[in-house]
Amino acid sequence: MQYLAAGSQAPQFSLLDQDGNTVTLDQFSGKKVLVYFYPKAMTPGCTVQACGLRDSKSALDEHNVVVLGVSTDPVKRLPKFIEKHELNFTLLSDEDHAVAEQFGVWGEKKFMGKVYDGLHRISFLISEKGVVEKVFDKFKTKDHHDVVLAYLDSEA
């Protein structure tokens, strides 16, 4: 699996959000976009990661960053995740993992002795010009938001 590197042009994509509306990357021109891929809504690690981003919204707003969470969950599962954890950002459904493949985050995983294809937990900070500015691939779910904010603060 080879995911996009910093300096790469971010793929233009179009996915459905939790309300069934089409969201495209170019809608956020002029803003930084944190596209974070997570394996499955309502699971412990994904919930901790999402809640950290939720609680960091004002700090992310100060850095002009929009958060888009992407998983292979169906659209109908996403509103439950948002409501249960009062998430304050957009979740996108990539059921056929086409966008995950464009970013290079769909691939072989191993868990409890089983090998399967799945979504890797990697985040991409995309610049106002649509270029991958930073890739976050080494973090604990509970620290993801801190790692992102530390990077943004260091660049400010």
Structure description:
The structure is a single chain. The protein has 156 residues and is an alpha+beta fold. It has helices spanning 44-55, 57-62, 78-85, 98-103, 144-155, and strands at 14-17, 22-24, 32-37, 65-71, 90-93, 106-111, 114-119, 123-126, 132-136. The protein has one domain: Glutaredoxin, CATH 3.40.30. The chain contains five helices and nine strands. It has a seven-stranded mixed β-sheet with strand order 2-1-5-4-3-8-9. Strands 6-7 form a two-stranded antiparallel ribbon. The N and C termini lie far apart (32 Å). The model has no long low-confidence stretch (mean pLDDT 95).
Q: Examine the secondary-structure arrangement and name the CATH architecture.
A: 3-Layer(aba) Sandwich
User: Which CATH class is shown?
Assistant: Alpha Beta
Class inferred from helices and paired strands: alpha+beta
What's the overall geometry?
globular
N-to-C order of helices and strands: EEEHHEHEHEEEEH
Low-confidence stretches: none
The tally of structural domains comes to 1
Q: Multimeric state of these chains?
A: single chain
